[in-house]
Amino acid sequence: MRIESLGGLTVRITGGEDREGGGDGPVVALLHGFGAPGDDLVPLARVIDVPRSTRFVFPEAPLSVPGSGGGRAWWMIDAERFARRERGEDLSREVPAGMREARERAVAMLDAVEAALRPARLVIGGFSQGAMLSCDIALRTERPLAGLAMLSGSFVAADEWTPLMPRRKGLRVFASHGRRDPLLPFATSERLRSALDDAGLPVRWVPFDGGHEIPPAALDGLVAFLRDVMT
Questions:
Q1: For the chain, how far is it from start to end, CA to CA, in angstroms?
Q2: What span, in angstroms and rounded, lies between the C-alpha atoms of 126 and 136?
Q3: What pLDDT is attached to residue 187?
Q4: N or C: less crowded end of the chain, CB within 10 Å?
Q5: Quick check: 150 and 184 in contact, CB under 8 A?
Q6: By residue range, what is the domain housing residue 108?
Q7: Residue 90, pLDDT score
Q8: Which value, to the nearest 10 degrees, does the dihedral of the CA atoms of residues 214, 215, 216, 220 take?
Q9: What pLDDT sits at residue 54?
Q10: Could you tell me the maximum CA-CA distance found in the chain, to the nearest angstrom?
C-alpha cells in the first residue's frame, strides 16, 4: 500500500500487480463513514475476492471530528437534528450542510486518481456517510462509472436526487442495509433503492438481519457485484 495526496486529500492506494496500485486494472474507490479513521475500510481490500489487477483507493475525509480520537468526516452532523430523527422525523429531504463542499473535495480527488491510475473502469462507493456522498457524486456529475456501491447508506437530498436519477439510467448499483440499523433507518434505505430502481438504475439489494455494519452477507454481495461490473 502507498499513501499519496491526491486532489488535496490523503489517499491510500493498494491492489494491482505490485499491491501498490500498479498496472492498468479497474479502480474501486471506497469512502469511509462519519467518525471513522481514514484507513477504516482498507482491510476490505484483503478480503474482497476480485482479480489481482483491481486497484483500491481509500480517501481520507477532510474534516476532523472533535473528541473522536482521530475520526474523520465528509461533513459534520447536527447531533440535535439527528436525535429528532430518532423520534420519528424524516430527514430524507434534507440536504446536509457541507455535502456540496464534500462533493467538490471528493470529485477533485477522483480527478487526480483517474489522472494517476488511468483506470478503464471505475466503481465508487462507501459505507454510511461515504455511501451517501458516493451516491451524490454519481447523481450530480457525469463521470463515467461502472458501478455505485452503497453499504449502509441512506436517502438524503431526496427532492434534488430524485429528478437527477433518470440521467444515470442503466448505472448498476449495489446496496446493503441492516434491518436493525439503529443509526440510519432501514426503511429510508429501502426508499432509496426503490427510487433508483424506478428511475432505471438496477439495484442489487442485500438486506440483512443486523445493525450498522458490513456483515459477510453484504461483503459477499459486494464481491459478486464488483466481479460483474468490472468485466
A1: 24
A2: 12
A3: 94
A4: C
A5: no
A6: 2-229
A7: 72
A8: -40
A9: 97
A10: 50
Q: Among candidates 97, 165, 166, 169, which has minimal Cα distance to 136?
A: 165
Q: How many domains does the chain divide into?
A: 1
Give the Å distances, CA to CA, from 94 to 25, 82, 109.
Answer: 37, 11, 25
Hey, what's the torsion of the CAs at 3, 45, 112, 26, to 10 degrees? 140
3-state secondary structure 9-51: EEEEEEEECCCEEECCCCEEEEECCCCECCCCCCCHHHHCCCC
Residues 6+ apart with CB under 8 A from 69: none
Cell numbers representing residue 127 in the block = 459505507
Q: What's the whole-number average pLDDT of the chain?
A: 94
User: 27 - beta bridge partners?
Assistant: 55, 122
Give every residue of the chain whose pLDDT is below 70, as ranges: 79-89
Instruction: Return all residues near 79 (Cβ < 8 A) that are at least 6 apart.
Output: none
Residues 175 and 134 sit within 8 Å (Cβ to Cβ): no
Record the cell numbers describing residue 152, joined without a space. Answer: 449502509
Do residues 132 and 160 touch, judged by C-beta distance below 8 A?
A: no
**pLDDT at position 210:** 97
Q: What is the CATH number of the domain that holds 14?
A: 3.40.50.1820
Residue with cell 434534488: 160
Q: pTM for this one?
A: 0.95
Cα(74)–Cα(9) distance, integer angstroms:
11
